[in-house]
Specification:
This protein is α/β, with parallel strands linked by helices. It contains two helices and eight strands, in the order βαββββαβββ.
Length: 155
């Protein structure tokens, strides 16, 4: 994705990504991932579906599915200062990990960026400069067996 900042995000503390992203247990977030995946034709189309996770004032996370723009292997987005993560699809024939351009966006925006592919969900953390496998294959589409009572709070 291409990015335009509405406001500069504050610097993140020097911490690594958590072992398990708490929002992966939220069905609303998983539904947004599913919508992004469908908009990319399940990775068969050369366009990307994008979800931005925003932190609400009460600490909960709100997923925002961005409209499909039909841009070739990219999408222009505007981020609000409370953005927590950028999650987007990559076509099946592209790399499964965040690209160099994705990492540049994460570094500028100071938020982690994730890719959704048929080979897994990967993250790039602008603090640690590391790329990690978050969930293998299409398991990032799996809804939690038991829905948590509330949207998980991110400390």
């Amino acid at each position: 994705p291409k990015i335009e900042m509405v406001a500069q995000a504050p610097a993140l503390p020097n911490i690594a990504l958590p072992q398990r992203e708490p929002w992966l247990s939220d069905t609303e977030v998983i539904d947004a991932f599913s919508k992004a995946w469908r908009s990319s034709g399940g990775g068969t189309l050369p366009r990307e579906g994008t979800v931005v996770l925003y932190r609400n004032p009460d600490g909960t996370i709100r997923p925002v599915s961005l409209p499909v723009t039909n841009e070739f292997k990219g999408q222009q987005i505007k981020l609000e200062p409370n953005a927590e993560a950028i999650i987007h699809t990559h076509p099946n024939r592209s790399t499964d990990r965040p690209s160099g351009g994705d990492m540049d966006i994460a570094d500028r925006a100071r938020v982690p960026i994730y890719t959704l592919t048929n080979r897994g969900m990967y993250s790039y953390d602008p603090n640690t400069k590391k790329t990690l496998l978050v969930k293998p294959g299409l398991s990032w589409l799996d809804k939690p067996k038991v829905k948590e009572t509330n949207n998980p709070r991110i400390p």
